[in-house]
Design a protein that fits this description.
634 residues; alpha+beta; Dipeptide-binding Protein, domain 1; five-stranded mixed beta sheet; four-stranded mixed beta sheet; 28 strands; 27% helix; 25% strand; SBP_5_dom; Solute-binding protein family 5 domain-containing protein; transport
């Protein structure tokens, strides 16, 4: 399989996995039925495969057309029918919502399971604080997931990753699609002993979507998921939570929000007491309702123990989970896996994969990370409030070289251009990008044009350029990437910069405060639609305010109108609008695209049971690995 095909397959698989996970879980009709068997149903799923045609437009530029072909596949799905269940139908809509709480619980699918033992696994850390809403790193979400529940979750027992109930036991959608009503599970208690109510769920979503509810300046890394879905208001009673949207979100978009990995439900009283910031909380007093309870944390590890009062009578099966902190993509981490110091690990260096594959009893799955890495410009201040300065940088910084450097540690793919491949937008293969201006290795003509742009902006050759501030996160791939940016600017333009590496706990806050000139940034497209994640990077929301991930404070009314246009466009018109968007981005250069996806390997020994089958591939992030409620040790 050649590299271009691998890359294209990766992105198409990533997008398809998101769509299928939602369609399998959320296209449901409730049937009241009590059956003690576990039947296997054959579900016919329509998968759209994309064929790419290359052509030249009237100006001679290389363009692509993507033609979608529907392929019907039969998939066997196990459905546990012990109480009211949701049977899968073939539409992307909830036909009939469950009228009341559902007495259904996640549990191991192995009848010969065992209980007890301590699972040891690797994550990044230690965290600088405990405010998991402010940051999207494994440092938090690879460590803290065991202690919390969410409104809905993915069924992480298999690679299907179907959306299933958790704290929300059932839901109903209004006929216009703008109102979603969730029934909240009875009998759920926080680790501190208090009962969970719908008001706690509302407060948690308020903290995520409307952080100013609790105080000014609160970060919310995944706010854009619901912000782009136009969530307007949340109301609650003890047993119910209602989400009101300005516009009806798609099923995929809504489910991405309701299952988001950062929305750990916490007490309303705790949010209020701490003014929405959990940075300095005592985890023994302020926690969640999840299957494990906090015990201790040190500079080396994070320990939780089974919640004996957990609302699910079947889980957890483990006595304890010990998270051992390691720097990612390092030889020390690989050695810990090779020697069975840990049972489960991730974030190993790609170059170590072959050696780890040779370890007896060590199995692995591949997680497709929806990572859209890019170089961000601070357009809110000089020099990059001038588009000519941004264009000059884009002409001499080679994105593929940045990805190659990043891949010494992190698995990522170069390609797509402004849009990742496989989304039905204008996109390009890596080979095509290698011949396209701005994306190719800089030519003599590119460097000359960049210098001319600088001169036109007031910096003719020989005039000192302003020294740039380049903050980066203090890990291997961030350091390599920013060092390459620094070197390219100096080599081709004589432009000096200062590189400073900062802790992951402050990395995003520095960018949000505008204390940078150029920075490395990553957006997760859990909603694989550009009007969601790309608008979040470049657009304005709530009037004239930069959207949540628009950390460069870029504003362009023309582009804002195009995001609105593509959202309203019929499916057959979306590609044409994407060409308009590409043309506008080519003019403005708010950022420099780098990757269209990431890839992470999760390693686990064969005595770890309850994981998706060895060799599985699925899309997601830390939430698809680090819950461990149905995992057990043999």
């Amino acid at each position: 399989m050649n590299e271009i095909f691998k890359m294209r397959f990766l992105i198409i698989a990533l997008v398809a996995t998101f769509i299928l996970a939602v369609s399998a879980a959320c296209t449901t009709e409730v049937v009241k039925e009590v059956v003690k068997e576990v039947p296997v149903e054959v579900v016919r799923e329509v998968v759209k495969e994309v064929q790419v045609e290359v052509y030249r437009d009237k100006e001679g530029a290389v363009r692509t057309r993507e033609v979608e072909v529907e392929v019907v596949k039969e998939v066997e799905v196990e459905v546990i029918k012990e109480v009211e269940i949701e049977k899968i139908v073939e539409k992307l809509e909830i036909v009939v919502a469950t009228p009341g709480p559902v007495d259904w619980y996640v549990q191991t699918m192995d009848p010969n399971h065992k209980r007890g033992g301590t699972l040891k696994w690797i994550s990044l850390g230690p965290p600088a604080h405990w405010d998991y809403f402010c940051c999207g790193s494994l440092t938090w979400h690879g460590t803290m997931h065991t202690m919390y529940d969410r409104l809905l979750r993915h069924d992480t027992r298999t690679a299907d990753m179907t959306v299933i109930p958790e704290i929300g036991t059932s839901w109903d959608r209004s006929s216009d699609g703008k109102t979603w009503t969730f029934q909240i599970r009875d009998g759920v208690k926080f680790h501190s002993g208090q009962d969970l109510t719908g008001h706690d769920v509302k407060a948690t979503f308020d903290r995520m979507v409307f952080p100013d509810t609790f105080g000014e300046g609160l970060a919310s890394v995944n706010r854009g998921v619901m912000q782009s879905a136009t969530l307007k208001e949340i109301t609650s009673t003890d047993s119910e939570v209602v989400f009101n949207f300005e516009e009806a979100p798609t099923m995929t978009h809504a489910m991405a929000g309701f299952t988001d990995f950062s929305f750990h439900i916490s007490r309303k009283a705790d949010w209020e007491e701490h003014n929405g910031s959990f940075k300095e909380i005592d985890l023994s007093k302020v926690s969640g309702t999840g299957p494990f309870k906090f015990v201790e944390t040190t500079a080396d590890h994070f320990l939780v123990e089974a919640n004996v009062d957990y609302w699910n009578p079947h889980t957890p099966y483990l006595d304890r989970v010990e998270t051992i902190y390691f720097a990612p993509f390092t030889p020390a981490l690989t050695a810990a896996v090779q020697t069975h110091m840990v049972d489960i690990a991730q974030a190993t260096a790609p170059g170590d994969t072959a050696n780890l594959d040779a370890v007896p009893g060590l199995q692995r799955n591949t997680v497709l990370w929806p990572f859209y890495w890019h170089i961000l410009f601070n357009t809110d201040r000089a020099p990059f409030n001038d588009v000519r300065m941004r264009q000059a940088v884009a002409l001499v910084v080679e994105p593929e070289a940045l990805v190659a450097g990043m891949n010494q540690a992190l698995g990522a793919t170069f390609g797509g251009g402004w849009f990742p491949e496989g989304m039905g937008m204008e996109s390009f293969t890596a080979d095509q990008l290698r011949t396209n201006k701005y994306f190719r290795a800089p030519t003599e003509e590119d460097i000359a044009e960049a210098k001319a742009l600088l001169a036109d902006a007031g910096y003719p050759e020989g005039t000192p350029l302003p020294k740039l501030d380049l903050p980066g996160r203090n890990n291997k791939f961030n350091t390599i990437t920013m060092e390459l940016v620094q070197a390219m600017l100096l080599q081709h333009l004589g432009w000096e910069s200062e590189l400073r590496m900062v802790d992951v706990g402050t990395w995003r806050e520095i960018k949000a405060a505008g204390e940078f000139d150029i920075g490395l940034n990553n957006a997760l497209y859990t909603v694989p639609a550009p009007e969601s994640f790309l608008r979040d990077i470049t657009g304005t929301c709530d009037g004239d305010v930069p959207c949540n991930f628009n950390l460069g404070k870029f504003k362009d009314p023309v582009l804002d109108d195009l995001w609105t246009k593509i959202k309203a466009a019929a499916p057959e018109d979306r590609y044409a609008v994407s060409v308009e968007i590409s043309d506008q981005l080519d003019k403005q250069w708010p950022y420099l695209p780098m990757t269209q996806a990431g890839r992470n390997i999760v390693w686990f020994y064969d005595d770890v049971k309850g994981m998706p089958a060895h060799g599985s591939t699925y899309a997601g992030f830390a939430e698809k690995v680090s819950r461990f409620d149905h995992v057990w040790l043999d």
